[in-house]
Amino acid sequence: MLKDSYFNILDMEKNDNDILFHIELNPSHKVYEGHFPGMPVCPGVCNVEMIKECVQEHTGKRLFLNNLSQCKFSAVITPTYNPLLLISLNIENIDGETIKAKGKITDPDGSTTFIDFKGEFQTK
Asked: pTM for the whole thing?
């Protein structure tokens, strides 16, 4: 789990199935010692994990990523330049065990999209 160590959820806004998470990265997290020394960037797998953990936060269920139909990395997230992020998601509970999510990670004003995401999660 990366929540509360790699990143923190500062706020969560809900509007039906649309959820907006205000995220703060921890630039001193150990992952940046190897990715990359002197010029830290957020690993793609950590970005996808942040999305999963936000979906878990909303649903209250432990999940695993079952299907990743889209994951477009458009820009690099650097924790020193981009410590604050927005994760906007549309979350749909399909059958109690399958959760569909689509959304994106952007900078706080929405001018830069870092990741576009569509996937399905299953409860553990």
From this structure: 0.95
Residues 6+ apart with CB under 8 A from 115: 47, 48, 51, 71, 72, 73, 74, 104, 105
CB atoms near residue 52 (< 10 Å): 22
d(CA 45, CA 33): 16
The CA–CA distances, whole Å, from 26 to 82, 98, 102 equal 10, 31, 25
Q: All domains of the chain, ordered by start, with CATH?
A: 7-123 (3.10.129.10)
63-73 and 98-106: which strand pairing?
Answer: unpaired
Tens digit of pLDDT for each residue in 5-59?
A: 999 999 999 999 999 999 999 999 999 999 888 899 999 999 999 999 999 999 9
pLDDT tens for residues 27-39?
A: 999 999 998 888 9
